[in-house]
Amino acid sequence: MGSAVDGPRQWVPRSGRNVARGARVARSPGAPGLQECSALLSSPNVEVAVAPEGVRGGHGYAGPVPVDKVLLAAPRGFCAGVEMAIKALAWMVRAFEPPVYCYHEIVHNQQVVDRFRDLGVVFVDDIAEVPEGRPIMLSAHGSAPEVVAAARARGSHVVNAVCPLVTKVHHEVKVRSGKGYRIVYVGHEGHEEAVGTMAVAPEAIDLVESVADVDSLPDTDQPVALLAQTTLSHRDWAAVAERTAERFPGLWRPGRSDLCFATTNRQSALAEIASRCDAVVVIGSANSSNTRALEKLAHGSGCARVYRINAADELPDDLTGTVGVTAGASAPEELVDAVIARLAPVEGVEEVRITDEDEYFPPPRELRDLLSGVDVLATFGFGGSVPDRPEVNDRQLRASDVLAMLA
Ligand code: SF4
Q1: Which fold is adopted by the domain 80-163+362-406?
Q2: Which residues form the pocket of ligand 1, taking CB atoms under 6 Å from any ligand atom?
Q3: 3-state class (DSSP) for residue 311
Q4: Assigned CATH class of 165-247
Q5: What are phi and psi of 155, to 5 degrees?
Q6: CATH code 3.40.50.11270 region(s) in the chain
Q7: Out of 145, 200, 247, 321, which residue is the most buried by the measure of CB atoms under 10 Å away?
Q8: pLDDT per residue over 183-214, tens digit each?
Q9: Cα(132)–Cα(199) distance, integer angstroms
């Protein structure tokens, strides 16, 4: 992560670049819709259309609340893991007749979830609710091994959209518990990621959320390892990590903390602007851990007014001066555009970017296998040849464009 703050940049709303409806393709019955997906995703010049004015995305435009200036944190919003998960579920929706099932909310954002729900995705919290033979996607937060096994046992297409960085923590749990370690896991009780990670070795893990929790842990003769949920507040995690190291000399911890690059970057970017703001607006859901960490950081910076909102219509109407804006890793950019449109800053928007994120996670393996198999069949079926068929260009496709296409 870079530390230098670039100078002011001109900000251009990204979500205005909605993919034209004409680019949308009809879904065929059954899996052969994948051939159409391939053509769609490989298009080098996806047509774009800028909405004429005002706020797009269907989230409330309740009239402007003009402020002097907006400081816009960057990076913000969708991370590579969320991008991957949303695009993967979009592939599923294109590929299969509804309903497609998804274990847990694909990401913690109501707008994203509702959009998929409108397309026939059924979100469940118990694999037993999925009828035999239906396609299932497992969410980005990572699932317990028994949940993955139960999904596979139902005999349908199972696509595990777990973020690779969560998988890494699962692996660390498996390895350390296998070596006889007691694991202190810093996370939020009940959060899907924590539940899934702890289930890898429940007998070896203690969940802690605070320094007081660390103090309450029993003494142990086992070696102790420290692992963490990927989306925590850095400040909270550091305090807990320090206390754990004091309590358990010789503590093992990964070379880099488990807090992911996206969590780190979004918090660092907000830290750069918070002290310059009369108010800070954090866009994201209440059940999004990294969003709550941003909210906490803004409060900790001493900013007098901090608001976590789901959408622009939740903005208070008495904001003044300079307002900082950021978004959690599950929040679409169109929500940011809507908030800025409503703030209508008289002196404009200054984007403060601390680093560029170029991380990319390819589609889940099960989806890649499915896509390439059906794509080859469909290519032959249409009289083409495999070497001539268009490349699937998932990397260049943004999840926000996919969502717009699906709307
Ligand atoms: Fe992966 Fe981090 Fe995004 Fe979570 S916040 S999905 S761990 S990149």
Answers
A1: Rossmann fold (3.40.50)
A2: 79-82, 140, 163, 165-166, 230-231, 260, 262-263, 290, 329
A3: coil
A4: alpha beta
A5: 75, 10
A6: 80-163+362-406
A7: 200
A8: 999 999 999 999 999 999 999 999 999 999 99
A9: 24
